[in-house]
Amino acid sequence: MTLTLTMIAASMLMSFVVRDSAELIRSKIDLVIYFRDDSVPDEKILALSNRIRTQPDIRSIEFISKQQALELFHRLPINADIKKPISTENNPLPRSLEIKTSSTADLPATVSRIAAADMEEPKIICDECLSYTKNQATVDRLVSLTRFVQQAGIGLSLFFGLIAIFNVANIIRLTIFARSDEIEIMRYVGASNAFIRAPFVIEGVMYGLLATLITTVTILIGAKLLAPALNSAFSILGIDFYAYVWQKLTVLILAQLAIGLGIGTIVSALSVRRYLRA
Amino acid sequence: MKEILRIGLPEVKPNATSQDQTPVIEFDRVDKIYNGQVALKNIDLKIYPEEFVCLVGQSGVGKTTLIKLLIKQEEPSRGLVLVAGRSLKDLRPKEVPIYRRKIGVVFQDFKLLPQQTVWENVAFALEVCGVGRSEVVKRTDKVLDLVGLNKSKRRYPEEISGGERQRTAIARALVHSPKILIADEPTGNLDPVNTLEIIELLYRINSRGTTILVATHNRGVVDRVNRRVILMKAGSIVSDQQFGKYVI
């Protein structure tokens, strides 16, 4: 049963990670506008921002100052030696406008409209400084991956779930067999079926609780050990995997309890049932 | 054997039956068939309150099958089994344990729990029915006193004789104060002395108002008991005598 619950918990976690990553990617900016140089006044940038805001497919637009750009840079998970030379006194990072669109269906058209909004001479947007990330393709791939992970998780969970059911049923049957004399006497002297059934159901519940406890501890230890490698491999997502597991722990434990206790009690009750038929 | 059986038993009194009373046990045209094999055939039987009845016949004639129908361990293939006027077919599953508390059953192999003492084996019958602790103690002590096992109550089944084990089983069967006591070959595993003790005990229980049905193939017991004898052969009742003898 522990193996089953571990598989289910791991599948759920992977599903959560992939789904949340897809959301994260979706929420990232679609377009960034950089400017010719630091001599462009802030008022002209703000005026451009207001013109772009009125366009139909613009969801939001945010001005990032040099200081804000510096703060964002220092939050990146990169080597400190690289960050050190970049400071308030020596800040080469440019100002920018970060734009989110309501649809990424036709980003090139959106870019053209934005470029047209730059009516200044000379233009304040630097040449080839309009960049956009192809988030949509990434999101689509993540959605496919989510679906695959979920289906694989369900398949594996069902497989191990069946194994867990057989295991619990066999253990309970052995216990029943060992106590068959006692059960027989209990029936002859008029013990109710609930009274006869209760110890075996409780045994099934204990299996479920124990399996949940072991699985939870295993998941936490596994997450602690694997977190550094996973964090590094998926640094672009900005997720701390160990903290993420803690965040999802309540849901995982509840799911395990539901399945573990469900299998334990139902299988136990069914196993003892044939001994209770009058 | 004859010498032993002649002494010890109280004077025989006739069954205190009354044909006007409602039978406490009634089999109404009952058949029982297992996979095409007829175990019981057209059983018509009435047992009245406070009767002492011996059900006799060779092994395999259907005595145990009849008892199984009575304790609702099996269902009849045809006909009705009634206890205190109520058909056992009408019992709902939840009512079966309650019904079984009202009848005491004793088996040839005693069916005691080896890891429990005499006292615990008897108390077990009350504990599993949810009786409170003080009541368990009171009733267990009382019934052990009735069967004469107070001195042995802390001993385990392996430490006592066959007769004492059967008395323990009888005590457990009596602990719910049943109106009916059914004994399936209660002396089957006992020597003649213990056999006598058990029959004497059953007599005493019957004299207190409990209807007794004993299935046995012990001729000596049947002849000495000199009560109602129902003889079975090949799944049918072939004779039913008020003061019968074991005649095959």
Which descriptors would you attach to this protein?
heterodimer, A: 278 residues, Alpha-Beta Plaits, 2 domains, 10 helices, B: 248 residues, Rossmann fold, six-stranded mixed sheet, four-stranded antiparallel sheet, globular, disordered N terminus
Can you walk through the features of this model?
The complex is a heterodimer of chains A (278) and B (248). With 278 residues, chain A is an alpha+beta fold. Chain A is built from ten helices and four strands; from the N terminus they run αβαβααβαβααααα. Chain A has helices at residues 2-27, 42-53, 66-74, 80-83, 107-117, 135-178, 180-188, 193-233, 241-247, 249-276, and strands at residues 31-35, 58-64, 96-101, 125-132. In chain B, the strands form two sheets. A six-stranded mixed beta sheet of chain B has the order 6-7-8-3-9-10, with helices on both faces. In chain B, strands 2-1-4-5 form a four-stranded antiparallel beta sheet, with helices on one face. The radius of gyration of chain B is 18 Å and the shape is globular. Helix content of chain B is 33%, strand content 25%. By secondary structure, chain B is an alpha/beta fold. Classes of the chains: A alpha+beta (278), B alpha/beta (248). The interface between A and B is medium-sized, with 15 and 22 residues.
State the major sheet of chain A: 4 strands, antiparallel
Number of DSSP strands of chain A?
A: 4
Radius of gyration from the alpha-carbon trace of chain A, in angstroms: 30 Å
The CATH topology of one domain in chain B:
Rossmann fold
Question: Unreliable segments of chain B (pLDDT under 50, ≥5 consecutive)?
Answer: 1-16
SS content category of chain A: alpha+beta
Determine the N-to-C terminus distance of chain B.
20 Å
Estimate the mean pLDDT confidence of chain B: 87
In percent terms, what proportion of residues of chain A is strand? 5-15%
Principal-axis shape of chain A equals: elongated
The proportion of strand residues of chain B reads: 15-25%
What spatial form of chain B do the alpha-carbon principal axes imply?
Answer: globular
CATH class of one domain in chain B equals: Alpha Beta
The number of strands of chain B is: 10
Helix content of chain A: 55-70%
Detail the poorly predicted runs of chain A: none
Structural domain count of chain A: 2
